[in-house]
Design goal:
Elements (H helix, E strand, L loop, with lengths): L7 H11 L3 H24 L3 H20 L7 H24 L2 H24 L13 H10 L5
Helix pairs in contact: 1-6, 2-3, 2-5, 2-6, 3-4, 3-6, 4-5
């Protein structure tokens, strides 16, 4: 769903993404990936091929964004480990999409939930306030968050 000014919910979501900090954007990406994994499991279990495919494709796109947004120059060892995890998650989601295997999506879901919990703990330790002023260099992550998050389901 493309955000339009005539849709108040879309305008709110757009504003939320455009004003989010890098840490909040990452949290939104985790939330989006989790949402789409849940949708994919439900679709696979009910035999809905197209919705399952779409949900897994969106989850894959988010995991790819999580991986490409790592700053290897800042913390190379940690980023290498996270990159390996995201590669594994991506492969799980691709395999699940090819084989319609809900167990693979569930494994990805467990790992993503753990990563989200870890991210939230980090934000809390850093004393992150709820709202942040927008950063200037976030267009790629913002666009991914906007296209990944959906007002539907």
């Amino acid at each position: 769903m493309t955000p339009t000014p005539s849709n108040p919910a879309s305008a709110y979501l757009r504003n939320k993404v455009l004003t989010a900090s890098p840490r909040e954007l990452r949290l939104m990406l985790y939330d989006g990936a989790l949402k789409f994994c849940h949708q994919a499991i439900q679709a696979i279990e009910t035999g809905q091929i197209e919705p399952g495919f779409e949900a897994l494709m969106r989850a894959q796109k988010i995991v790819l964004e999580l991986s490409t947004s790592l700053k290897h120059d800042v913390e190379p060892d940690l980023c290498a480990k996270l990159s390996a995890l995201y590669t594994y998650l991506y492969r799980l989601l691709v395999d699940a999409n090819m084989t319609r295997d809900a167990a693979k999506v569930e494994e990805a879901l467990r790992l993503l939930e753990y990563e989200r919990q870890t991210w939230v703990m980090l934000m809390e330790q850093l004393g992150e306030p709820v709202a942040f002023p927008p950063d200037k260099d976030l267009t790629g992550a913002q666009q991914t968050a906007m296209s990944s998050l959906s007002l539907r389901g």
